[in-house]
Design brief:
Number of helices: 9
Radius of gyration: 22 Å
Shape: globular
Structural class: alpha+beta
């Protein structure tokens, strides 16, 4: 099972965000009667070249529409920890986000499968991958959904995958599934369901254990796909390019990594967030905060239920941080909720904070860029709480 960690993106999304801190202040000014007129923007903030206003989000392009649909497909994926409790580590670092047809597809599926999908005009895939650890896991499971024009095309793509596979085996108890071992120790399997091809890939010390993962995954995954209502292909480009301004509140990512171009400058819901968190046990704090939308650009912005929920979420994220992994650094004066630090493993810098019902997080290569971006992000949220 291929794996490539994406450090900056994973760090920005990770629940363990810099300095451990179990409390936070609101950053909201109030009068003597205790009324809160709104967030205060300190004067003289250095925001560098970053904007301080909502950014305009254009209508979805064809690719953009399919990425939105891919994020919607997160609602149709199981959480693989439901298959086995050991399968809890992964998320965004193991590509739990949409993928379009192209070179990045080969990082999700075997090369022969990627070729078969491409020949049949796969539009978008959405995957989730977890194991017992991030690097070189003993056990791991990837579940993916790959979208085609219609059921007939999905069936044709499945036939093309079979034609390119070696020896095949059946998965007992699940109709319509065929499996193979493209490499020893990993059972790779497929099933067509409507306009989707489901791909489940299990890795374990023995083929029997890997096959058990795959079988249980299908028993959970097939009903979930059947309940999902895909957007008609003819309507995908009309899908909204933002959700209530969550993406407009982020700062644009101008140079996303080529290996993760589908993750930049898009939005997703709670289901998509839960798939992306590195440790699945961290998902509970987002559920408790009522997070219903996340915008991801150069910064990541989480929309919580209200100001109190956002403050609690920020405190929870910080309380789960490993203080030994980062060194605190100074933040611009007056940004009362913001904390920044330098990660010891790779030298990058990260910041997090909250304004109103929004929590934000970011990771960059330089201290100046981190603090300027944090100041700009705080300003945008303070103007649009």
């Amino acid at each position: 099972m291929k794996s490539t960690v994406i450090p900056a993106l994973a760090l920005a999304l990770a629940a363990a965000t810099l300095t451990a801190c179990s409390t936070t202040v609101s950053g909201i000014a109030g009068d003597s009667a205790g009324n809160s007129p709104g967030p205060v923007i300190p004067t003289g903030l250095d925001v560098g070249q970053n904007p301080t206003t909502l950014r305009e989000i254009p209508p979805s392009s064809t690719d953009g529409g399919w990425i939105v649909e891919g994020n919607r497909m997160g609602d149709a994926l199981i959480q693989v920890s439901d298959v086995d409790a050991r399968l809890k580590i992964g998320g965004v670092a193991l590509r739990s986000y949409p993928v379009l047809d192209g070179l990045n597809l080969s990082e999700r599926v075997p090369d022969a499968t990627a070729s078969a999908f491409s020949r049949n005009n796969m539009h978008v895939g959405m995957t989730t991958t977890r194991g017992d650890k991030l690097e070189n896991p003993t056990v791991a499971l990837r579940v993916g959904l790959y979208r085609f024009d219609d059921a007939a095309t999905a069936a044709k793509a499945l036939d093309a995958v079979k034609a390119g596979a070696g020896s095949q085996r059946q998965i007992v108890g699940i109709d319509g599934v065929f499996a193979t071992e493209f490499k020893p120790g990993t059972v790779d399997s497929y099933r067509a369901e409507g306009p989707f091809v489901i791909n489940v890939s299990g890795t374990a010390p023995t083929t029997g254990e890997a096959t058990g993962f795959v079988s249980k995954a299908y028993a959970l995954q097939v009903p979930k796909v059947q309940q999902f209502r895909p957007t008609p292909a003819s309507s995908v480009q009309t899908l909204p390019s933002d959700d209530g301004g969550i993406l407009a509140r982020t700062i644009y990512e101008a140079n996303p990594p080529v290996s993760a171009k589908e993750i930049a400058n898009n939005y997703y819901d709670l289901a998509g967030l839960v798939l992306r968190v590195e440790d699945v046990s961290d998902a509970d704090m987002y559920r408790a905060a009522g997070v219903d939308a996340v915008g991801q650009g150069k910064t990541i912005v989480f929309r919580a239920r209200d100001t109190a929920a956002a403050a609690k979420l920020l405190a929870d994220r910080r309380s789960r941080a490993d203080a030994t992994k980062s060194t605190p650094v100074a933040v611009p004066a007056g940004l009362l909720t913001v904390r920044c630090g330098q990660y010891k493993d790779d030298g990058t810098y990260g910041c997090s904070g909250h304004v109103g019902r929004y929590v934000f997080s970011l990771s960059t290569d330089s201290l100046t860029d981190a603090t300027q971006t944090a100041a700009a992000q705080y300003t945008i949220l303070a103007k649009n709480p």
